[in-house]
Specification:
six-stranded parallel sheet; 2 domains; alpha/beta; Rossmann fold; 17 strands; elongated; 386 residues; 36% helix
Length: 386
């Protein structure tokens, strides 16, 4: 690697507010690989997407704030280029600059289209390629699959670590193995549930997605979010769980609110007392039951909040699950938390170090747990880079 320019695909897709990073987890997670490459004498060209600019330049989505944070973490100068590919990017990569940060990949429409010409231009900037962007490796984009087809390629330590730790849940996990799933839409998690049914001992489901399952079981859920077009599919999944002897635990009480917003009138009720309101969190009895199940587990996967945790009045269920996962970890369980909202809940409670593994990839972790072969990982395997 000495004196070679290495293109490193990172996941630096961080939240920004008024030009400042509000959560730098992904930047910090990228630092070890970058530091290791610098220690081996490589010169780096770092690339990432940020947000969804849809192939256009969006001033609020420039990577300059990320460059400033990288300088602090790496302890070296970071040259921020205001274009993805082109003369200025080429000149910076041809220079002696230790770290070059290219502009937001998604400013160029060729990124998401995996355009061959764009992949050629990216690959021409470097002598080798490292993919350390687990959170983007489920996308067949130019920087993920196009570049490693053109230059020598390898997996970074973050990517390799994520795959290893998530796959540990798929191959002979310690038992009992409990999956805790939440979030808004059951359609986002059906693939994961289906793939995990032959592996887990129990599934605990909260969040808005629980209401589609509750309807499938014949319950009334008021105005709660329900994916009516998925009810029949959910019934089949529930029947499959029963046939396999897997317990599926759903809320028995909820926080019922007049509206899903701050300050809305709300109260804890049994499910059959929800009336014409909507569920915005699991209730305390459900939280206690879910917590007890998690604390008895030896392997735990948690993906998705139990309610609208961004609103403090509707966050108790998510907090209770977070504490239970932390307790299980302390008792020796192997615990994996994936998904941005679950990670955010842990950060709110200052508990990010209280689990075995906190994944940086929401969609990528779900697809891996569905049993999918991630495009960014598959191409490295084919090229002998992993």
């Amino acid at each position: 690697m000495a004196d070679k320019r290495v293109l490193v695909r990172c996941d630096l897709n961080v939240p920004l507010k008024n030009g400042r990073i509000t959560d730098d987890l992904r930047v910090r997670a990228s630092a070890p690989t970058l530091t290791a490459l610098l220690g081996r004498g490589a010169r780096l060209a770092v690339c990432s997407h940020l947000g969804r600019p849809q192939g256009k330049v969006v001033e609020e989505l420039r990577l300059a704030p990320v460059g400033r944070r990288l300088e602090e973490l790496l302890g070296t100068d970071v040259t921020v280029v205001d274009e993805v590919v082109g003369d200025r990017a080429t000149a910076a990569c041809d220079s002696d600059a230790p770290v070059v940060l290219l502009e937001n990949l998604r400013f160029d429409p060729g990124e998401e289209k995996n355009d061959p010409a764009f992949a050629d231009a990216l690959a021409a900037l470097a002598d080798a390629y490292v993919n350390d962007a687990f959170g983007s490796s489920h996308r067949a984009h130019a920087s993920v699959v196009g570049v490693p087809e053109r230059v020598p390629a390898a997996a970074g330590s973050l990517l390799a670590d994520e795959v290893e730790k998530l796959e540990r849940l798929l191959h002979d996990p310690a038992r009992p193995f409990v999956a805790v799933l939440g979030g808004a839409k059951v359609s986002d998690k059906l693939g994961v549930i289906t793939n995990l049914l032959v592996r887990v001992d129990a599934v605990v489901i909260g969040g808005a997605m629980a209401f589609t399952l509750l309807v499938a079981e014949g319950n009334e859920v008021g105005r709660s979010l329900v994916e009516r077009d998925r009810v029949d599919e959910v019934k089949e999944v529930l029947e499959r769980a029963r046939s396999l002897g897997v317990d599926v635990h759903l809320p028995t009480d909820v926080v019922a609110a007049d509206a899903p917003e701050e300050g809305a009138s709300h109260e804890v009720v049994l499910l059959d007392r929800i009336g014409d309101r909507l569920g915005v969190d699991i209730g305390p009895a459900s939280a206690e039951q879910f917590g007890a199940i998690v604390r008895e587990a030896k392997s735990v996967l948690w993906n998705g909040p139990m309610g609208i945790f961004e609103i403090d009045a509707f966050a108790d269920g998510t907090r209770a699950v977070a504490r239970a996962v932390a307790d299980a970890t302390q008792a020796g369980a192997y615990t994996v938390v994936g998904g941005g909202d679950s990670a955010a809940a842990l950060r709110q409670l200052d508990m990010t170090d209280a689990v075995s593994h906190l994944s940086t990839g929401g969609g990528a972790s779900l697809e891996l747990l569905e049993g999918a072969d991630l495009p960014g990982v598959a191409v490295l395997r084919e090229r002998g880079g992993r």
